[in-house]
Amino acid sequence: MSTGTRGRPRGTTKRELELIAMRLFTEQGFDETTVEQIATAAGISGRTFFRYFPTKAEVLWYQFDDEVSALRAAFATVPGDVPMMTAVRRIVVNANRYRAEDVPELRTRMQLVASIPALAATAGAHYDAWERAVSAFAAGRLGVAEDSLIPLAVGRTTLAAARAAFDAWLARADADLTVYLDEALSALSTGFGTGAPMSGK
Fold first, then answer.
1. Taking the model in full, what pTM does it have?
2. Residue 195 per-residue DSSP state
3. Which of residues 188 and 99 earns the better pLDDT score?
4. Beta carbons of 84 and 138 less than 8 angstroms apart
5. Which of 39, 43, 48, 57 has a Cα at 20 to 30 A from 152?
6. DSSP string for 92-154
């Protein structure tokens, strides 16, 4: 196998690999798609692929990981007079605003993750990082350690509500994703005890 002529060509990015992988996963199946096929379509070697991602499953998670970093940055700018759960709702909703032209791709990515066991199995570490970003903000507001009960509860229940919103949006597609997120997180902040659902049926 030649190693001297197939290095990373200029312009190869994680984004390019993601788009190629999504297309191949959709067209021929996740299990049937190899790293070599993804790499070849991108014009790189299999070895170079692993400089970007440790496995083919991780290709679909890098934008989610970027969202975690964006959440942490946004939480750091919240004024002290904004109620904790109001801030959580606003920031999570704003982090999931997409242009109309990006929605089909988002739905494809989420459906792949939800429907392919090998992809779903990789979700834990990424969801944990997202949850910890919320817990860290809650801990700072409450003046306690991040692993204290209430910050953990805030992080985990926020993640659960957000995932419920994603699932409902995928199933119904009758409104923007942010409508579902705003509804779910508003209900969470009030203990699910007030207000009529906007999208639930």
1. 0.83
2. S
3. 188
4. yes
5. 57
6. HHHTT---GGGHHHHHHHHHHHHH-HHHHTTHHHHHHHHHHHHHHHHHHHHTS-TTSHHHHHH
